[in-house]
Amino acid sequence: MNFPTSKIRRLGFILLLGVSATWVGAHVRLIYSGNGKALYWTAPESISVVINSDGSDDLEDMTHVPALRNAVDAWNGVTGTRARLIENTSTQAQNSRNWSSSQYHMMLFDESNSSGFFPPGSGIVAVTPLTFFTTGQIIDADVLFNGNSFQFTTSSDPGAFDVQDVATHELGHLLGLDHSGCAGATMYPYVDPTVILHRSLSADDARGIESVYPVSQKGSIKGSVRRAGPGSVVKGAWVGVRDAQGRLVAAALTNSTGNFTLSSLSPGTYRVYATPLDYPVSASNLGAGRTIQTDFESTLSSFVTVSGTSATNMGSLLVGADTLLSLGRASDNYPLRVSTGQTTSLVVRGAGLGNGVTLESSDPSMVISNVAWLSSRVSFKLTVPAGSSLGHADLTVTDSAGRVSILSAALEITPPNPQVTLASPSYGPSTGGVGITLLGTGFRSGARVVVGDQVYVDGKPGGCVVASDSSITLTTRSSIPGLHDVTVIDASGVEGRSVEAYLAQATPVVNSAFPSSGVSVGGTVLTLTGQNFVSGCRVEINGVDQSQTTVLSLTQIAVITEVGVPGGPYSLSVITLDGQSASVGFSYVVDPDPVLQSANPDAVLSAGGETVTLQGIEFREGLQVRVGVHPLTGAGGQSAITSFVDHTTLTIQTPAMSTGSIAILVQDPLTQQASILPGALSVTGPAQDSVGGGCGMISPGGPTTLTGLLAGTGWILVLVAWFGHRRRRWHPQVA
């Protein structure tokens, strides 16, 4: 089944089903459905995380690092919690891909479904598997991105998913939080590829992690939600609390007795509301083990005062009968961004939206105008006064009969995007130490600057300084070489970017050019390996520019040669944008290049002695074949007995080899022309009786793998970012 790339749906699944009524409704935490225990870390002050060094195939080398570090910093920026994510930067840890081990809590891109979580057609964009004891104690957690099926970006590439946005959400799961019913929360279960506002935490996200791992006791509001008339409790009602400016500051679900606790509140005056968790977030977006009732009307309380660190008991919030009026659908891109000092045109979908219905924001200073109603949507303009406080506001619709529907945290109030107009100087050594001034507009305290693989945070040691709303200063650190964007990210998550504004200079190093010779009429496919191959490098052979040059990474360049003069070796030079260069030899010959295209059979045993037929073009007598060579440089490998059949066919006898996927090289020993077929053979060892177990769905019968042994006293929770449908509901499969 194929799903369009327009919307993500993240759903959590516990791999044992159960129902419990023991949890307390104070923010939405992950629970073990077998007994209702909330998941937690026993040492939240130092939760180690590792950013795998491989990164994503979609990104420039190491540019995933600042995006993931920014996601880590988003949670570490909450001051009222003991939870801290500590990056393990050891080379051994960063080079590891063993996410299934509890030694490291990895953040990595799975480009080939090596994890097994991303089979073809699964629609999973990212997964956060957690292992925990049945007491709720988390043993291991990792964040895996599906690089095999989806594209990721750190620069708003169309159709690709923002790394920082997705990672911030997934780290919330790693810390123990479930999805939120607040449309503007980082833990909101839907995201559009164009949305980046989940990079920054909402007040609900921050209060949630504070309540799980508090530094000290704060004020709270306790109460219950009951039905007017019969007085029966409402289970799983979404309860939000607004401050005096109409900003949402916390939210929670009622438990099985209709009770809730809104915790980590500062002293002040608040209003509490209850609303059904039906649209755009529903019970299907939460982990198992909860009862969610939605057959009631949204209701707003009178004012409630919180003093000091005490708990205020507001009593029961009485709600009316169910109504067809509703606001918000998953097909809308929440949160709806509105900027201070600006007017924004918006559309919200729902039901019962027609004549006689009114629309208002929880912040009365916002002006709503040009309202146009249809039965299933409302379009309008919303003006936010300059200087308004940032955060999230609710939208409320009321029909002619006085019935109400509240869309929790629908609006996110942000500053306008910062603008970066100049980085001066615009170049410097990649070793760092250069003082840079950024000029632009909209720079605010708490901003961070990303240049290459480095993040500079305002006010932090080694960071940047926001000198004014139009100037930022920093001193560069050692970074990857290349021509980099300079990006200023506001604390709200919005950004301004100057494309290719700073060149981190470094002298290139060419280790090899393969093959070392090619036909003089051109068209030879060359692979250059080395270091400091920055974007924008060009290649010359004997002074002739090679127009078909592609910089694949900092260590690899692909070239298709132009016409040349037979002879050599000539100088093959890699030249950077600032004129630095490095050279290696390359020769032109008259003979056509042999090209290896296929091997049959392509699966052999490691013992050797099998006949393999090689197909290609321009084969000739005297060609030599080596198997198991390096797939880029042709180095190493073992010689194979070779027989020439015709100009398109060779046969070889395989030598004894190591198991795995291996490359085959065909080479002319006189001219050094050569061709490599990476992954030409799959080499396996002798067949053995099965002695191990696999890891599939864990069942109550008791798994026997290492994970299963841990699950003898605990189980696995898998939090999945599902690929969803923009316009219709569908029922995802469990991965």
Commentary on this structure:
With 735 residues, this protein is mostly beta strands. It folds into six domains: 47-212, Collagenase (Catalytic Domain) (3-Layer(aba) Sandwich); 219-319, Sandwich (Immunoglobulin-like); 326-414, Immunoglobulin-like (Sandwich), CATH 2.60.40.10; 419-505, Sandwich (Immunoglobulin-like), CATH 2.60.40.10; 509-589, Immunoglobulin-like (Sandwich), CATH 2.60.40; 595-684, Immunoglobulin-like (Sandwich), CATH 2.60.40.10. Helices cover 6% and strands 44% of the residues. The strands form twelve sheets. Strands 1, 4, 5, 6, 7, 8, 9, 12 and 54 form a nine-stranded mixed β-sheet that branches. Strand 49 and strand 50 (638-646) form a beta hairpin. Helix 1 packs across helix 3. The chain is elongated.
Catalogue the unreliable spans.
1-25, 687-715, 720-735
Number of E-state strands: 54
The CATH topology annotation of the largest domain reads as Collagenase (Catalytic Domain)
Measured as a percent range, the helix fraction is: under 10%
Question: Key terms for this structure?
Answer:
elongated; nine-stranded mixed sheet; eight-stranded mixed sheet; 6 domains; Collagenase (Catalytic Domain); Immunoglobulin-like; mainly beta; 5 helices; 735 residues; disordered C terminus
